[in-house]
Hints:
homodimer, alpha+beta, four-stranded antiparallel beta sheet, 11 helices
Amino acid sequence: xxxxxxxxxxxxxxxxxxxxxxxxxxxxxxxxxxxxxxxxxxxxxxxxxxxxxxxxxxxxxxxxxxxxxxxxxxxxxxxxxxxxxxxxxxxxxxxxxxxxxxxxxxxxxxxxxxxxxxxxxxxxxxxxxxxxxxxxxxxxxxxxxxxxxxxxxxxxxxxxxxxxxxxxxxxxxxxxxxxxxxxxxxxxxxxxxxxxxxxxxxxxxxxxxxxxxxxxxxxxxxxxxxxxxxxxxxxxxxxxxxxxxxxxxxxxxxxxxx
Amino acid sequence: xxxxxxxxxxxxxxxxxxxxxxxxxxxxxxxxxxxxxxxxxxxxxxxxxxxxxxxxxxxxxxxxxxxxxxxxxxxxxxxxxxxxxxxxxxxxxxxxxxxxxxxxxxxxxxxxxxxxxxxxxxxxxxxxxxxxxxxxxxxxxxxxxxxxxxxxxxxxxxxxxxxxxxxxxxxxxxxxxxxxxxxxxxxxxxxxxxxxxxxxxxxxxxxxxxxxxxxxxxxxxxxxxxxxxxxxxxxxxxxxxxxxxxxxxxxxxxxxxx
DNA sequence: CGACTTCTTGAGGAGACTCAAGGGTGGTGG
DNA sequence: CCACCACCCTTGAGTCTCCTCAAGAAGTCG
Lengths: 258, 258
């Protein structure tokens, strides 16, 4: 992977915010730490492990999940390239979530001290991390609403639309058919269902000509029908970011980057 | 309410982090904006409204909820005095959550510009807001696991334990019987159940001598049994906060507060 | 005291789960 | 190159949790 590609991946999440001062993404690249790899099924960081770090995902998909007594697993986030991983555990002494590879994976570890440096020296980058975290929180709220208040077919439809939207943000050339390397068991753990019932639900979507999802490959056949089934209110796109580099203050990044 | 009390409430969330530099909480007090009130059932801020602000809750309980197509509601957070409210909507152009009063409520609005000022001028406070948000995210992950992967009685037990723990952090003199002013319908919307089934579940807890929750008053009778039913893994208490005011840098707050 | 909300309980039904077994698919090693 | 193995997908039958609908009781507020 070329250095250019690597940088593109690293900052995908920031680019999504639109007109970002380039010095912000530059600042973030300087903080990237050592690279790590994992094979499918490998655990990058287990729930309960001490001194949790933060990761940036470069290649592959990763699930973030918590385990309840009895051994059941709930996946709380599907990470795709460009995502930051493990942040919810940052406040604690031990990790509250397990990061597990869905595919072969490449990521880098953000050194623990780097976060302190960001808040001291890169206020604009800190503000972006704050906004990204709020966005993650809103996504989690939507998932909770989906699991708590809608049926199986609605949950699957919502997930398909979410995955497609996120892939599209990352790679604008994503079409209606794309790789979505999750097993039905993993989908079930995301949606609060069982693997068997996910299978039946996917069969129903296939029979109705709405979507096909087999062997890690997802094809959207009828987007309007999917949207009709997905029950979560659409958000206004766009964000308040002006305040980060806004008027009334010296450019926040420039002062410290000098 | 005296000024002293008000300050105590404002900073309860920060005190929970332990040894916090007093200048941090001082800095936060200076940002408090105009006060607002609401009666039970009143909406402080509706989902979809433009230019969402952030609130600090002083008195009473508030639910934060999202609505799915069909009219069903999922409550994603129960706010108690000292909490910051509305932060997930900060990144968006419109609010993604409705803030509704469970009781008579008093709160203050944090001016929009105040957040920008925090990140520019109060890096230690910004870091605390970041940590608090990560903690909220972890709480949401636990709720999702509870709703997605456990039965009704487990969800209710988990909720009771969570409420008790949070009240205890805020008021150490909270006993095993305390005010928990939620209707069964509201509890249902938190846990992804129906009001009818919450009623039956509470009856079961009562019949087994584990807990009583009637008319907004909650009594814990058998904490061990509750813990046995609550299926979410306990977290290590304590947090990494040293890095905020840690060595190797000038005190982050002092430089800008001068 | 009256209207409204909230709580309570019953009966019946639907969606999702459990258990179980067979069939594909891809990877690995001989 | 083929055979085998592990994992994943698929489908059926029966069960159970939780929902829906409904109506009455209890509590609350003006």
